[in-house]
Amino acid sequence: LVVAAGVTSGPGWAASDALIADLVPEERREGAYASMRVVYNLALVCGPAFAGLVIAAAGWTGFLVVDAALGALAAAAAALLLPAGVRTTGRGTAPVTAALRDRPFAVFLASSVLAWIVYVGYESALPIVATTAYGVPPATWGLLLAVNPLLVTLCQLRLTRAVAVRSPQLKLAVALPTMGLSFLAFEASTSVATILLVVVV
Q: Are the C-beta atoms of residues 189 and 130 closer than 8 Å to each other?
């Protein structure tokens, strides 16, 4: 169900990524994506604590009401505040048709599906395995989970600036295998230190 939900939510994530490409000039795009990653990870640091407070105060029903209200507020803000895009061409080419003809994009799309499998392993499978098979207490896992978004919040923009001179292809070719292959560390050890290493990578 988690994998299915991830696949079906893909168009929403793609739309938010496309929104940045549409609104930000090309020379500022990499920094804009880095900024959004910081925002997402800051939400991962603060969101669970806020959700816990809402559940403690108002129960799950209250949490769902607050969640729906925040979503509606975000949608209203987007409708009112987002400017017109910078990439409207009026050429009439259907986006799907254009995308399928773009071979580099098709390769990128296929690689993003493989990358999603790694993300599912990290975000969904690892917490279950760590707390059931590796003997990590749930509270310890919660602390381990907070390390990654904290590092992203503190270091993402600095790292993006540091590697700005490198090509996007090189960065993807190095980053994605590094992320996925880090799971091989569990073949050697399943200790808390190893889990922390994978989270940091």
A: no
CA distance 185 to 181: 8
Q: By C-alpha distance, which of 124, 173, 128, 146 is closest to 46?
A: 146
pLDDT tens-digit series, residues 24-45: 888 888 888 888 888 888 887 7
Q: Model-level pTM?
A: 0.56
DSSP letter (8 states) at residue 121: I
Backbone torsions φ then ψ of 167, nearest 5 degrees: -75, 150
Amino acid occupying residue 89? T
Query: Is 131 in contact with 121 (CB distance < 8 Å)?
Result: no
d(CA 186, CA 99): 38
